[in-house]
Amino acid sequence: MGIEWRGPVPQSNYTVGREGNAVELIVDHWTVVMFEGAIRRFKDPASILSAHYVVGQDGRIAQLVSEDDTAYHAGKYDVNLRSVGIEHEAGPAMPPTDALYAASAQLHREIADRHGLALEVGKTVLPHHAIVPTECPGTLDLDRIVREASEEDDMFTEEDRRKLDRVYQHLEAYEPLVWTTRLQRWLAKAIRSVFPNADVSGPDVETGQPFKG
Question: Can you give the pLDDT at residue 180?
Fold first, then answer.
């Protein structure tokens, strides 16, 4: 997943370090404004606001604050110290897209892996309105983000999965005994095509009974 570094934000908008706190939460927001508008707001020193990441409608991700530092996003400083803030390019007139959900899910999973979090809405993944009175993040579906983030990341494409499925459906073809049996039958047929009266009797490699190939 490509993440574009768009920081640093002004010193008034974040704190270097976390005062010894570990990351325990991911707090999700929506921007209401467009992607670049959100970034401009966070880079305005008068806003005294920031987020670690902004996820776009098209799936792109910008990072403005290091996860080692404290972004001002949650509305409560003690929560900021313990959380990663993710803004999503969405709002009342801008519904979240599939691409946004997919990118956010992968970002959540990577953050969780880095900090040893078990992703769970209401515990380690919180909407902004769970911290302060606000409508944010509106219609953003955190359950969907966590569900997609928790799906097995097997790194296979759909074509890879189709190929694997064909293998799983024909596993017997990979058993050595099957190939040995086929070889015995092929040899018997080949020999008899040249020497019709050849004696190819002997034990069947599969059953141990007299070969009748």
Answer: 67
Tokens of 18: 């976390």
Q: Which residue reads 């569900």 in tokens?
A: 147
Predicted confidence (pLDDT) per residue in 34-92, tens digit: 999 999 999 999 999 999 999 999 999 999 999 999 999 999 999 999 999 999 999 99
Check: CB of residue 26 under 8 Å from CB of residue 86. Answer: yes
Q: CA-CA distance, 171 to 152, in Å (whole number)?
A: 23
Contact 41/141 with Cβ under 8 angstroms? no
On whether the CB atoms of residues 184 and 191 are closer than 8 A, the answer is no
What is the C-alpha separation between 172 and 178, in angstroms, rounded? 7
Q: Distance between the two ends of the chain, CA-based, in angstroms? A: 56
Residue pair 89/56 in contact (Cβ under 8 Å)? The answer is yes
Q: Containing H/E element for 128? A: none
Measure the CA–CA gap between 128 and 138, rounded to whole angstroms.
Answer: 9
Structure token digits, residue 193: 């095509």
Amino acid at 188: A
Structure tokens belonging to residue 40: 């401009």
| Residues 99, 88: Cα–Cα separation, whole Å | 11
The residue type found at 60 is R
